[in-house]
């Protein structure tokens, strides 16, 4: 919390973790002479009782001397991929609120248990170092429309059991969301399997510790990839020039990260391309099989015209696809 961005909002669903975070943040802000956090509670429109639960959250906030607002989703409730849809609704509403209030960050109550579940979910998907490093304490806001905000997770090293004991000491109630026990969701299935996994030594604390080790490795890889990008790329208007020889000389992991960063920079997409397609493009570049050009992530990749061969004959140009940009930076 030493470098905590402020002023801020805290997302409170009414569950034990978020209610505990509300009290902890309020106390921390008071101790440091900072404005109290604003409390936001999102009604996704998924359950009829959600409206009443949001009112309870606001009552708890007022009792703690905090101001807040219920943010209600006014569209139709999502019927498929409910977790992802609800997440998009939640961060869209909170992002708009935070920007209107000129806040720097939104604090959320992801815990050590959530970190462990995230690790297992991503392990099942075959994620690499970045995915298995888990959630970051400070990260870009999940909705790219609000890139001026950050999301803060100060409880990643705290267990849910510890937070519930804290609330018990305060004699503070909380709400159990029945969706957190719905076995249709993979995260819930993992949560229910955790007691058996813990018997094998795969406790939430151990899994979260592994995330920490991988997060340090990720940081080192990111720094090394920045160095590769600095020597292997060059800006050209809305496009970028890429040294395919330098890319080929770099270790594959660093080359893939550099290639992804270039594609993200040119396309403006805050997310990396899917690994399989990124690896296929890298393989084509390594083989020199790029003469006809390739497309990926809203970009076209091909040999640079002679006048733009900043790195010699090995220069590639990565530019926005023509149907996504009215400008072609490689034209004089």
From TrEMBL:
Transport as UniProt keyword: no
HAMAP family, per the entry: tRNA_Ile_lys_synt
Highest taxon in the source lineage: Bacteria
Protein name: tRNA(Ile)-lysidine synthase
Subcellular location: Cytoplasm
Gene3D superfamilies per record: HUPs
Keyword Cytoplasm: yes
Gene of this entry: tilS
InterPro entries per UniProt: Rossmann-like_a/b/a_fold, TilS/TtcA_N, tRNA_Ile_lys_synt, tRNA_Ile_lys_synt_N
Function according to Swiss-Prot or TrEMBL: Ligates lysine onto the cytidine present at position 34 of the AUA codon-specific tRNA(Ile) that contains the anticodon CAU, in an ATP-dependent manner. Cytidine is converted to lysidine, thus changing the amino acid specificity of the tRNA from methionine to isoleucine.
Domain remark from Swiss-Prot or TrEMBL: The N-terminal region contains the highly conserved SGGXDS motif, predicted to be a P-loop motif involved in ATP binding.
Residues forming coiled coils: none
């Amino acid at each position: 919390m030493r470098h905590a961005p402020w002023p801020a909002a805290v997302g409170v669903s009414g569950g034990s973790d978020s209610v505990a975070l509300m009290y902890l943040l309020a106390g921390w802000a008071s101790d440091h002479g900072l404005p109290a956090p604003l409390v936001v509670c999102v009604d996704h429109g998924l359950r009829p009782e959600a409206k009443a639960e949001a009112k309870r959250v606001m009552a708890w906030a007022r009792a703690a001397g905090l101001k807040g607002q219920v943010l209600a989703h006014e569209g139709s409730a999502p019927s498929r991929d409910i977790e992802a849809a609800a997440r998009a609704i939640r961060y869209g509403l909170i992002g708009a609120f935070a920007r209107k209030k000129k806040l720097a960050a939104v604090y959320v109550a992801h815990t050590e248990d959530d970190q462990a579940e995230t690790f297992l979910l991503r392990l099942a998907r075959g994620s690499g170092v970045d995915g298995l490093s888990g959630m970051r304490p400070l990260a870009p806001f999940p909705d790219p429309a609000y890139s001026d905000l950050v999301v803060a997770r100060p409880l990643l090293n705290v267990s849910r059991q510890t937070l519930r004991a804290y609330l018990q000491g305060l004699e503070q109630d909380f709400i159990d969301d029945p969706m957190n026990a719905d076995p249709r969701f993979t995260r819930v299935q993992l949560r229910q399997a955790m007691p058996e996994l813990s018997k094998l030594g795969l406790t939430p604390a151990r899994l979260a510790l592994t995330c920490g080790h991988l997060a340090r490795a990720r940081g080192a890889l990111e720094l090394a990839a920045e160095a590769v990008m600095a020597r292997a790329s060059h800006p050209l208007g809305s496009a970028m020039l890429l040294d395919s020889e330098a890319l080929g000389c770099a270790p594959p992991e660093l080359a893939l990260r550099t290639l992804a960063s270039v594609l993200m920079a040119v396309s403006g997409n805050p997310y990396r391309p899917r690994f399989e397609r990124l690896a296929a493009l890298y393989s084509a570049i390594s083989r020199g099989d790029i003469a006809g050009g390739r497309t990926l992530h809203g970009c076209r990749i091909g040999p640079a015209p002679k006048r733009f061969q900043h790195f010699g004959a090995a220069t590639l140009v990565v530019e926005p696809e023509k149907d996504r940009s009215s400008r072609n930076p490689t034209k004089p």
